Amino acid sequence: MRLVLLGAPGSGKGTQATRLRDHYRVPHISTGDLLRAAVKVGTPLGLQAKAVMEAGALVSDDIVLAMLEERLSQGDTGGGYVLDGYPRNLAQANSLDALLARLGQSVERAIQLDVDTELLIARIAGRAKAEGRADDNPESVRKRLQVYEEQTAPVIEFYRHQQKLTAVDGVGSMEAVFERVVEALDSRYA
Fold it and tell me: For 85, left (φ over 0), alpha (ψ -120 to 50), or beta?
């Protein structure tokens, strides 16, 4: 199963991706984790990314896609994977499709975790308080959610148009949301 997990900040993507990894026994691939690991180890792509970040710029899609290509070419991804938080915009979705085509693969399913904006703000505020993160105040969270909506709405439509998208209610206990996601995935492959 090659799965893309979509959802706004605070929707529970990371939590559900970890649970899906364990349930389906496929790797959980987070581009943020790939980037941090490559920088820490000092791979050629990591060194490129580090230079960009030290200059105060955003790491280019080309560097992230090259890291993703390296990861998706590893043997443990043969049975599938859960891709968490990528693609975030339409250009990335198109690039991912092109990369996967070169690898003889395609995204099989995209799951969108739907959570009401006010609940997302409350979740992130609670997380910020627990982790001592001052940058997660309600106003900055609203701005991040607005950017997410603007950039990710076309990605949602991209996968809907390909008939690969399933929206899942992301409200409730972690277990209840997980059960809904698994039910949506298993019904697709039954």
Answer: left
> Number of structural domains, the chain?
1
DSSP run (H or E) holding 169: strand 165-169
Residue identified by tokens 């996967």 is 100
Tens digits of residue pLDDT in 93-140: 999 999 999 999 999 999 999 999 889 888 887 777 777 766 667 777
169, β-bridge pairs? 114
Round to whole Å and give the CA distance between 76 and 85: 20
Q: Residues near 92 by Cβ (< 8 Å), separated by ≥ 6?
A: 61, 65, 86, 155
Q: Which of 183, 178, 152, 171 has its CA nearest to residue 85?
A: 152
* pLDDT score of 2: 96
Catalytic residues: 13, 88, 127, 133, 144
- CATH code (residue 127): 3.40.50.300
The model's pTM is 0.86
**Cis preceding-peptide flag for 138 (omega within 30 of 0):** no
